[in-house]
Design goal:
Elements (H helix, E strand, L loop, with lengths): L15 H37 L12 H14 L3 H10 L5 E9 L4 E8 L2 H12 L4 E11 L8 E9 L2 H7 L14
Antiparallel strand pairs: 1-2, 2-4, 3-4
């Protein structure tokens, strides 16, 4: 077997490329540091100039009274207890009733719900289910008519109800009202 000679101490033949790369890297680091310092000084000068300038209030726009009233009404509507109303509608849902519209009146604290039902008994059952909901009071059938031109003769109806808590939010912007825990109507 042949003898293998390993010389770990032997120097490289071309030491210059490593040294050139080291000098270039150091030059790049110095240039980056100087650029950073210049930018930081520029930002400090701009901040000082900004602090010296007098602050001016943004020019106010005169808002017409109608627009202001519309904004307040929108904010009041957003503050209504919508979750309770939709929960009541979902709890009273039936496969024999299709809702057509929900018309809330936040100032009066009422809601009118219109829909179509398979027959008159389904409409009355839906009104009964709505009257059991915690979010609605004084639920009553206000209109119904049988559609005679339709071969299945569905009943179109409208239900009016007091929306618990809507009147308080709609007029005063306060929290929604509650019903007694025992389920009785106030």
């Amino acid at each position: 077997m042949r003898e293998l000679r390993l010389d770990f101490v032997r120097r490289a033949r071309w030491p210059w490329p490593g040294r050139v790369l080291l000098v270039l890297a150091l030059g790049f680091a110095v240039e980056t540091a100087l650029s950073f310092k210049d930018l930081r000084d520029g930002v400090a000068l701009n901040e000082a100039a900004l602090e010296r300038t007098p602050r001016q209030a943004a020019p106010g726009r005169k808002v017409p009274a109608e627009e202001l009233a519309a904004v307040r009404e929108t904010v009041d509507r957003l503050g209504l207890p919508w979750g309770r109303l939709f929960g009541a509608l979902e709890s009273a849902a039936s496969d024999q009733v299709a809702l057509l519209g929900i018309e809330p009146d936040p100032k009066a604290g009422t809601v009118v719900i219109s829909g179509d039902s398979k027959d008159y008994l389904a409409a009355l059952s839906y009104v009964l289910n709505l009257s059991r909901a915690q979010a609605l009071d004084r639920v009553q059938l206000v209109r119904h008519e049988m559609k005679k031109d339709d071969p299945q003769a569905p009943v179109r109806f409208a239900v009016s109800a007091a929306w618990a808590g809507a009147a308080a939010v709609g007029t005063a912007g306060t929290a929604e009202g509650t019903k007694p825990a025992d389920g009785t109507k106030p």
